[in-house]
Amino acid sequence: MLHQASNRFNPDDLWQKDHDHFLHPYTHFDSFREEGSLVLVEGEGCYVKDAEGRRYFDGIGGMWCVNAGYGRKEIAQAMAEQALQLCYTTTFVDVTNAPAAELAAKLASLAPSGLNHVAFATSGSCGVDTAIRLAHYYQSRRGARDRKYIISRKNSYHGSTYLGMTVGLRDGDQSEHFHYVPDLVHHLSAPYPYRRPDGMSLAEFSDFLVEEFRQKIESLGPETIAAFIAEPAQASGGVTMPPPNYLPRMAKLCRDNGILFIADEVVTAFGRLGHMFASEAEFGIVPDIIVTAKGLTSGYIPLSAVLYSDKVHEVISAPDADAWFTHGYTYSGHPVACAVGLKNIEIIEREDLLGNAARVGDYLERRLAELSSLPIVGDVRGRRLMMCLEYVADKETKRKLPDEANISKRISNECEAHGLLVRPIGHLDVLSPPLIITKGEVDFIVDTLGAAIRKVTDQLVREKAI
């Protein structure tokens, strides 16, 4: 049962304060002006409650975050105890703290072989910045100062900082009202099997993507490329699982050409696919650098960790009296955040949440596949507790519904009305529930989502929108 703490809030007052003063990430001002926010005030297990007292199953885990579930007293106690013992210390140059040292060692013990070094930051966005700066520093320290280009993919999301938004490239992310880092990033085609070219098999699609990368390396010159960055499974870009053998072949091209492979595991690390890290366990690659965040603390406190290889460390730490790694943050290795990370990982291991994510995630895949028969469901895809439905107007041609149909939001609104939160993104609805989810809760998700899709489809037919 959720606690009764929400009784102390005035729902209308909270809504108005938020409406008048809080600039939300990714605000769409016209709709926000009219609708404002859903004000959440409590969470326990897989459930959240709003200021009006309504209870919802959180099918998006906050936003890929709350892996261990809401309301973990152990985590809150670890946070409080560390705050009382040592609330903060700088970690610049030669000062550290116990939780930061312990968490760095723990992450090295869990990571793929050879990734024994950790840089801490405060978010996935800052982690991506750190990884790219680390790649540039590595290339320069080994004498390859012309290697500045970053190779990324379309449909990717790598954070919302100035650099992160330059590196990622989802539709609509790069607003004309902002500026981006010029002449730094080159984008390849997205590994988006559902929308691969007509008549192309998955194997041929993999060949096409790898050949595109090879040609890009040739055209730019390998001596100009610092790193390739990729989400092993593109998350906010549509939960796309790569075609067979794509990532290992991309990794080989990187190795053969002196290019660092950065795996953005901000979403996939710490259990979402049933593994601590998905790069090697799920996709068969050992990157040079792995970026993590979100599930590292289950969203209880902001923290990210960039894990990097012995190969990189040997170069950047080679003797040079004038060499300083002039990068880092006030809150890098924050002792309270690192204490939370340690306790969160302890819970994941002790309760076998990876095993639960694998077992129940496989069941979620099977149950969601049943919705493939619905008229507007073009594709059901993903892996375990990272899933997505793509809606179309025509299943044969894969033609999208018009933007004005607002399809994913209409369906998510209908789900919300029946106690389920899913994440609408364009013509997609995305699911990423906590790792503690049960099969019974999977049934609730699929039954509720299916009913919502059917109801909205009937509405679209009456409106002659399809």
Describe it for me?
The chain is globular. The chain is an alpha/beta fold. It has 15 helices and 15 strands.
Share of residues in helices:
25-40%
Radius of gyration: 22 Å
Order of helices and strands: HHEEEHHHEHEHEHEHEHEEHHHEEHEEEH
Largest sheet: 7 strands, mixed
Strand order of the main beta sheet, please?
Answer: 4-10-9-8-7-5-6
The helix/strand class is: alpha/beta
Number of beta strands: 15
Query: How many helices in DSSP terms?
Result: 15
What percent strand?
Answer: 5-15%
What is the strand and helix layout of this fold?
Layout: H1 11-21, H2 29-35, E1 40-44, E2 47-50, E3 55-58, H3 61-64, H4 73-85, H5 98-110, E4 117-121, H6 124-141, E5 149-153, H7 162-167, E6 185-188, H8 202-220, E7 225-230, H9 246-256, E8 260-264, H10 278-283, E9 289-292, E10 304-308, H11 310-316, H12 335-350, H13 353-369, E11 377-383, E12 386-391, H14 407-417, E13 420-421, E14 423-425, E15 428-431, H15 439-462
Parallel strand pairs: 3-13, 5-6, 5-7, 7-8, 8-9
Antiparallel strand pairs: 1-2, 2-3, 4-10, 9-10, 11-12, 12-15, 14-15
Name its key features:
alpha/beta; 15 helices; 466 residues; four-stranded mixed sheet
Q: How do you describe this structure in short?
A:
With 466 residues, the chain is α/β, with parallel strands linked by helices.
